[in-house]
Amino acid sequence: MYERIRSLREIKNMTQVQIAVLLNCSQRIYSNYERGEVDIPTEILSKLADLHQTSTDYILNRTDRKEPYPPSKKDRI
After folding, report:
1. Alpha-carbon distance 30 to 38, whole Å?
2. What is the mean pLDDT for each group of 10 consecutive residues in the chain (77 residues)?
3. Is residue 75 part of a domain?
């Protein structure tokens, strides 16, 4: 999982500082996420998936399908 969030960040050509600002956390905390030194809270995981337009399952290595899931019916209303 940790390699994926680094790879996704690098694909967007963003720094850890830029991602940390968007996640409202420090660069040090974000760096800890990328190195796997701390678990990523669910709220941050969801924000990362939205930011990178992918699914949490992709970030968690549960799938290799990078595309996000389609919105649920309740989200379409």
Report:
1. 9
2. 93 97 97 95 96 94 84 61
3. no
DSSP 64: S
In this prediction, residue 28 carries a pLDDT of: 97
pTM recorded for the entire structure? 0.85
Residue 33 belongs to what domain range? 2-65
Give CA separation, 62 vs 7, 33, 55, 66, in Å. 16, 18, 10, 11
3-state class (DSSP) for residue 31: helix
Our count of domains for the chain comes to 1
Query: Does residue 76 belong to any structural domain of this protein?
Result: no
**Alpha carbon distance 4, 60 (integer Å):** 8
How far is it, in rounded angstroms, from Cα 51 to Cα 34?
15
Residues 76 and 44: their CA atoms lie apart, in Å, by: 23
